[in-house]
Amino acid sequence: MASDGLKRAVSRAKDVARDTGRRTILTVNGTPVGVAGCDDAAWAITQGSEIISCLTKADFTKRYEGTSIGSGATAVMTFLPSGIGSGIVNGSGDSISSVSYEMKSGSTFKTVKIYAGGVVDVI
């Protein structure tokens, strides 16, 4: 369920961008830059300094019964007003074509791979 939750967060970020006609940022596995009130997020959707939606890592673990988001680096994905992803930047500020997160619950795990255009694969 945790991998589906992250997939839904990506979809929601796209929808918010398209529905509002504004550039929208999805931050995964970190604290959004320039936004107060969503520290150490599993994921956060923001527009400018406004939080649209946020799930902290602690709440993520509670919601998905002990599942962790893994040790993947922070990734920041931008969605254009059309809802199309325009790129991913890692925690070092480098543009990357995709980012992967391993969802772990006990001995079970799935990998969620997010591509710069906003496509998500659950493996």
Explain what this protein looks like in three dimensions.
- There is one protein chain.
- By secondary structure, the protein is α+β, with helices and mostly antiparallel strands.
- It has one domain (2-122): minor pseudopilin epsh fold.
- The chain is built from two helices and nine strands.
- It has helices at residues 2-20, 57-63; strands at residues 24-30, 41-47, 50-56, 75-79, 85-90, 95-96, 98-105, 108-115, 120-122.
- It has a six-stranded antiparallel β-sheet. Strands 7-8-9 form a three-stranded antiparallel β-sheet, covered by helices on one side.
User: What is the average of the pLDDT values?
Assistant: 90
Task: Indicate the CATH architecture.
Answer: 3-Layer(bab) Sandwich
> How many domain modules?
1
* Total count of strands: 9
Strand arrangement within the widest β-sheet reads: 3-2-1-4-5-6
Separate helix tally: 2
Proportion of strand residues: 35-45%
| Helix and strand composition category | alpha+beta
- Calculate the terminal CA-CA distance, rounded to whole Å: 13 Å
Query: Which stretches are poorly predicted, pLDDT < 50 over at least 5 residues?
Result: none
